[in-house]
Amino acid sequence: xxxxxxxxxxxxxxxxxxxxxxxxxxxxxxxxxxxxxxxxxxxxxxxxxxxxxxxxxxxxxxxxxxxxxxxxxx
Length: 74
Prior knowledge:
A two-stranded antiparallel sheet has the order 1-2. Helices cover 39% and strands 16% of the residues. It is built from three helices and two strands; from the N terminus they run H-E-E-H-H. By secondary structure, the chain is α+β, with helices and mostly antiparallel strands.
């Protein structure tokens, strides 16, 4: 594997799937004992939690799940 002139590398699909690195996943690099680790950012999960917390209780519950799905599918 090579680093491009822009400093980019491709994470093999096997590892992306195995560790859940989906498009737009926030990551962190950690230098540890002469090695470089790539991990999912802890801030990424906190961001999702804060979004869910803000949305909780905002729905009025007048539509069933089936009705909502019908609307979203056209």
